[in-house]
Amino acid sequence: MTHTLEVPGGILHYDVREAEGTTEPPLLLIGSPMDATGFTGLAERFRDRTVVTYDPRGIGRSERTDGASESTPDLHADDLHRLIDALGGGPVDIFASSGGAVNGLALVAVHPEQVRTLVAHEPPVAQTLPDREQALAAIADIRRTYERDGFGAAMVKFIAVSSMRGDIPADFAELPMQSPAEMGMPAEDDGSRDDALFGQNLITCIHYEPDFEALRAASTRVVLAVGAESEGEMAHRSGVAVAERLGTQPVIFPSHHGGFMDGEFGMKGDPDAFAATLREVLAG
């Protein structure tokens, strides 16, 4: 069943897949800027649980009514808080990936009572990295490229920085890049500047610094997850760094950054093994 929820400055669309006879709390599957369609395969592997997916504000079916150009993790966290209230107030379990993992950490810092377990999969928080200055400079360059040259040129650089293993070089902005056409992306700038990743979430997500004191004190069980095949990449390194700051060890999940995906958006991970690992982690 698909529902809508009015929140300050937006209207969220969310989907509830009800499971009969379960005693487990709802399982939320969240990403950002990925919408609910990216979790189709993972949701299918949890038919014994009530699964909730949603489109973050300004993405997919969800609308922005505030006229603002950017969405912060704290704003997304407030949306999630209101969504959980609409589901009965919680506590719920959450699997959160990428920017969704950043938003999940922001939620738990202020509303730990609403979340039993948060599995935060590869949150790309560059502030936690030893090469933070180079990483943040690279992200700023990607944003400038988007404003100047449009989606294709920015996406080439985004793929380069997100797949790079090891420290981000200080001269990232000067490195040679493939053309958008070579990577199967639009070569021409169509003039639009409404992409959810580059226009709304890129800077605020990657610049975000979690409230580690609040997270360490939270009643929520917070589990950091990283991909077996993404070691050395920025999001993997951030996941390890966040776990270290929380005094825990990250759990290694099968596959890569999109390892839970079953071909959605052309990305194929290992969703069967990924779901099995997630079940083990949620079971404690």
Please provide a written account of the structure.
The longest helix has 18 residues, at 132-149. The chain has 284 residues and is α/β, with parallel strands linked by helices. Helices cover 37% and strands 17% of the residues. Strands 1, 2, 3, 4, 5, 6, 7, 8 and 9 form a nine-stranded mixed sheet that branches. The chain is globular and about 55 Å long. This is Hydrolase. InterPro entries: AB_hydrolase_1, AB_hydrolase_fold. Keywords: Hydrolase.
Keywords:
about 280 residues; alpha/beta; Rossmann fold; about 35% helix
**CATH fold-level name of the largest domain:** Rossmann fold
Query: pLDDT below 50 for ≥5 consecutive residues: which ranges?
Result: none
Number of helices: 9
What is the CATH C level class of the largest domain, in words?
Answer: Alpha Beta
Structural class: alpha/beta
- For the termini, the CA-CA separation is 29 Å
Order of helices and strands: EEEHEEHEHEHHHHEHEH
Mean pLDDT: 95
Pfam families: Abhydrolase_1 (PF00561)
Domain AB hydrolase-1: 42-172
Keywords: Hydrolase
GO molecular function: hydrolase activity
Summarize the helices and strands and which ones pair or pack.
Blueprint: E1 2-7, E2 10-17, E3 27-30, H1 40-44, E4 51-55, E5 63-64, H2 73-86, E6 92-97, H3 99-110, E7 115-121, H4 132-149, H5 151-163, H6 196-206, H7 212-217, E8 221-227, H8 234-246, E9 251-253, H9 271-283
Parallel strand pairs: 3-4, 3-6, 6-7, 7-8, 8-9
Antiparallel strand pairs: 1-2, 2-4, 2-5
Helix pairs in contact: 2-3, 4-5, 4-6
InterPro entries: AB_hydrolase_1, AB_hydrolase_fold
Domain AB hydrolase-1: 42-172
Pfam family, one: Abhydrolase_1
